[in-house]
Structures are given as C-alpha cells and as structure tokens.
Design a protein that fits this description.
Strand order of the largest sheet: 16-17-18-20-19-21-24
CATH architecture of the largest domain: Roll
CATH topology of the largest domain: ibrinogen binding protein from staphylococcus aureus fold
Distance between the termini: 53 Å
Helix content: 25-40%
Shape: elongated
Strand content: 25-35%
CATH superfamily of the largest domain: ibrinogen binding protein from staphylococcus aureus domain
Number of domains: 3
Radius of gyration: 31 Å
CATH class of the largest domain: Mainly Beta
Largest sheet: 7 strands, antiparallel
Length: 544
C-alpha cells in the first residue's frame, strides 16, 4: 500500500495556507471514521485531518471523497463527538506551526454570548507512527485525543484529557531563524524545519539548482503567501515535498499544498475503495459485515481503555492519603501510600496549576467518566454483536431463498388473511403430504412463523448450533408421518448455514416449548426440551 510521509516544511506550507486563505471560514459539519476526521469549512470546502501512521497529514477534499472514505471503515473515532460538541458553528481564526516541527495548530472560536467567544485549539501531530489529533481549550489543556498510548506500569502517555498539552520533544538542530547565511549540502541535517525526504533530494541535486540555500530559506519567509509559488507541492517516492522550484527527479503536483495533499490522502487512506474494478466486484453483504465487525473491534478497543477507570480511582485515593505536596511546575508526582499489599509507590500525572486535592478530584472525575462510559460501551457491544448475528442469519436465509427460487422450489409467499399488508414479508409456505410448512426467511420472518403463525401443538424445527430459519410444521392435531417430519427437517437444514454439509443436525420440538429470549433480537429464542434429527439439506422434491 502506498504511504505518505511529510516533513516540517510541508506543515509550514499548510499553516500559511490555512492562516491566509482559510481564516474566517465557519465549521458547518464534521465527519469522521477510523483514523481521520473532516470539517466542512464554509465557504472554502472540506478539510481532512488524518493521524493514520501510514498516511498522516491534512488536505482539502470534496464531499464525494468524504462519502467514499466513510465506506472504507465505519468505526467512529472517540474524538469525533468531542469535535462536534466543541467546534460545530465555530470559525477558524488562524493556524501556525509549532517548534518548526510536524505539528500543526489550528485556532477556532465560537460566540457564546454578546462579545464573548470560546476558544479551542485543534493540534495535528503528523509524526507517522506517533501521529495524533488533540483538542485543547484556550489554555492548551487537553480535552480529548484521537489516540491514547498504552499504559506501561506507572508510565502514562504524554497527553491525556485534563492535563496541559505537551508537544513532541524538540528535535536537535538550528531553528529557521538561526540558519546560517551560507549553506552547504553537508550541513543540511543540522537544520530544524526540513524533513529527511527534502534533505536527501536536495543533497542529490544541490549543484543542479540555482541558489538552493536562498530557495530553502524562502520556505520560512514571513511575507511569502502560498499564492506566490513559494510552496510548490511535489512528490518523490513516498515523500510529499514543497519547494519554490521543481526539483530534478520529483513529480510536480497540481493545486496548492492542501489540495495536493488532500488528493494523496484520499488515495492512501482508501486505496482499495478507489479501484473501480474491486468496488464492483465487492459483495455489498460482505462490505456490510466488514463494517459491522470494524465497528465492533473499535468498541472493544475503547472498552479496554475504559477499564483504566479503576487506575484513576487508585491514583485519586493515593493523592488524598499522601502527606507530601506537588513540586512547582511538576507534571508528575511520585506518591507513597498504603495499599492492599502494604506500602506502595505510584507515579501520577498531575496538573501543576492545581493543588494536591484538586488533582485528586480530577482523578476521581476520570474514574467516574470511565466507569459510566464502560457501561455504555458494553451495552453497545452487546447490541452490535446481536446485530451481527442477525445480519449473518439474514444473509444465510437470503442466499438459501435465492438458490431455491432459481430451482423454483422456494415455496410461495405467505398471505395472512385479514391483514392490511397482504403478503407477510420474510415468510414462505410449502406443502408436504397435505401438511402446511412455514419458513422464516429473515429474523423478523422467524418471529412471525414462531410466535404468530404457529400453534402450541405445531412442530418447530431449526438447524442446531448455526444461524438458520425457524420452520413450523402445522399439524392440525393430526398424526404426522415420519417422512413428512424428515422432509421438514431437510428444509430447516437447507435454510441454514450448514446447507452445504453432508449431514445436518436439526432440532425439533413442539412450539409450546419455545420461548422468546427477553432483551434480544426478534429471532432469538430459548428451547426447554427437544429432540434431534440428522438429515441432508434439501427442498420438497429433492428429498428422497
């Protein structure tokens, strides 16, 4: 898969373009999925920000690109809700590059009263595998992050909600304002503000360029707008570059730095989706299943993060029992306290502007928030797992019905007498030896045949242990021949995931022993007593 690498000079170009051409635009809508978010900044267009380790950065894209990218994955990042809450309706005030590094800060404000504005900062750290998106308040205290690093012992990640934002460690080297008057290619690695990709290509072509040192300095000129051609987007391999002139061996890209970066981000983030032949060949049902499973995976990751709530409770209790005081300017405190196993030492991230008690209260707020979120996430996981089971069942039944219809042996649509809807969706009717047989061909159809069509004395069939149809044999309180029972069991096997098996185990019982599973989907039931039959899957006329 194609990757996208950028250097600090590219972030500088983005900051200038945003600051000079996008300032004043209003955030009208925010979308996102997996490792990216996009904001509609009216009247300019859509701005996408990605923290994907393989394709991090930002750029300008159109609405169609956003819709297509959403198909690539449906897991909503945790930061999306926070962005909608804090940035919707706000205006972009400006943008800047932090520390001549791959860190882009965008400032927003939103009117909350007459002459009163609430300021928020959105910080994109485009540092490949350490990439992140951070939302802060006007004092640069973290409100939410897109990525949270795993905890290792008592060592915590650099940025967590409730604590001051800390940028990535400074890169050793000369800042742009300290660059020497005379430059030589050997000294380029000693400079901050340019990436390895640009350094490498400049060193290879230093003699081919006219005054390359002056051209390099112009990237950080204070009076050079993006329309002056200072930031000419180019690509060399997997590196996205900007330079005032075309560099030998590099491909020139169309548009401004944000436009060119947006096109490349769209390509790298949804590379598979952007291949028409693969999109046409992809099964819609398979895509839906993949989306549901991606969302479930994201929720499970979020659940693991919520389980850290108990750690925050432990930290709060430790701070309350601690006799010491937080040193001035400290962002971390080493606390000794008595725990369940005796005296323990724990390192706790703290806000240097708050007292020991206030930091303890902040820890308890993290605890309560994580605990409440954990319950919600667990509930959503159970709901989504049930949705996946329903979807898989509907897919199995739909496939079986399609095969049966091609063979003209899929029964007849059932019409319920006296119902306004006429034909009942998801129900098929067969006739075997004078006995009517009803088959549910969807989750709702299963509930229909089991709890509305069947009588207590009728026989209920279902393939054991796999998704499949509920099948009802209407007995009319008559003695049912064994051959009819086996044929009905074969229908139940055919309308199941075990259809292709040489032998399928089918569960059979009277409908009176079937109960609806409370709190689950319509098709979920519990069976109190049953017998099993081993049959070959087939439809009437195919069963010997």
């Amino acid at each position: 898969m194609t990757s996208l690498r950028i250097g600090p000079e590219t972030v500088r170009a983005w900051s200038v373009e945003l600051d000079q051409l996008w300032a004043g635009a209003r955030v009208r809508r925010i979308e996102g999925a997996d490792s990216w978010i996009a904001m509609e900044l009216h009247p300019i267009g859509w701005l996408i920000c990605s923290w994907n380790p393989e394709s991090c950065g930002c750029g300008r894209v159109d609405r169609e690109t956003i819709d297509r990218l959403r198909l690539a994955g449906c897991r909503q990042p945790p930061i999306l809700l926070a962005l909608k809450s804090h940035l919707s309706g706000s205006h972009l005030v400006g943008a800047q590059q932090l520390n001549a590094d791959r860190v882009l800060l965008m400032r927003f404000n939103r009117p909350v009263g007459l002459g009163i504005f609430r300021e928020r900062n959105l910080i994109l750290e485009a540092s490949l595998r350490f990439s992140n998106l951070v939302l802060t308040d006007e004092n640069r205290n973290v409100l939410e992050t897109a990525r949270t690093q795993k905890l290792s012992g008592d060592r915590v990640s650099r940025n967590r909600p409730g604590f001051p934002y800390l940028p990535p460690p400074l890169v050793v080297g000369l800042e742009p304002r300290e660059w020497p008057e005379e430059m030589n290619p050997a000294g380029l690695p000693m400079l901050r503000g340019i990436g390895k990709g640009l350094i490498g290509i400049l060193q290879s072509n230093w003699e081919k360029l006219d005054a390359p040192g002056e051209l390099l300095k112009s990237l950080y000129s204070a009076d050079a707008p993006p329309t002056a051609g200072i930031f000419l987007p180019q690509r060399s391999g997997g590196d996205f570059l900007v330079f005032p002139v075309g560099i030998p061996g590099a491909e020139k890209l169309e548009g401004t730095p944000l436009v060119a970066a947006g096109a490349w981000l769209a390509e790298t983030l949804g590379e598979r989706l952007f291949r028409p032949e693969e999109r046409k060949a992809e099964n819609p049902g398979g895509r839906k299943a993949r989306q549901l499973k991606n969302r479930l995976e994201g929720l499970r990751i979020q659940l693991e993060e919520c389980k850290q709530a108990e750690l925050w409770k432990r930290r709060g209790e430790a701070l309350l029992s601690w006799r010491g005081e937080i040193p001035d300017g400290a962002t971390e405190a080493e606390v000794r306290f008595w725990g369940e196993s005796g005296e323990e030492t724990i390192r706790i991230p703290v806000n240097p502007h708050l007292s020991r008690i206030e930091n303890a209260q902040a820890c308890f707020r993290h605890y309560h928030r994580g605990k409440a979120m954990k319950e919600q996430v667990e509930l959503e996981i159970r709901r989504l797992e049930q949705e996946i089971r329903n979807f898989e069942q509907d897919e199995v039944l739909s496939e079986a019905l399609s095969i049966g219809l091609k063979k003209n042996r899929a029964g007849k649509p059932f019409s319920a007498e006296g119902r306004k809807t006429g034909k009942v969706a998801g129900v098929r009717r067969f006739e075997i030896g004078g006995f009517p047989v009803f088959v549910g061909t969807s989750a709702k159809g299963n509930r229909e045949v089991t709890f509305r069509i069947a009588s207590p004395e009728d026989l209920w069939f279902h393939a054991k242990g796999v998704p499949g149809a509920h099948v009802i044999l209407k007995t009319g309180r008559r003695q049912v021949p064994q051959v009819v029972i086996e044929a009905t069991a074969s229908i139940a096997a055919f309308f199941s995931k075990a259809r292709t098996s040489s032998a399928t185990v089918v569960e059979m019982t009277e409908k009176r022993h079937v109960r609806s599973a409370q709190g689950d989907s319509p098709g979920e039931v519990t069976v109190s007593c049953s017998t099993v039959l081993t049959v070959t899957a087939g439809l009437p006329g195919e069963v010997s």
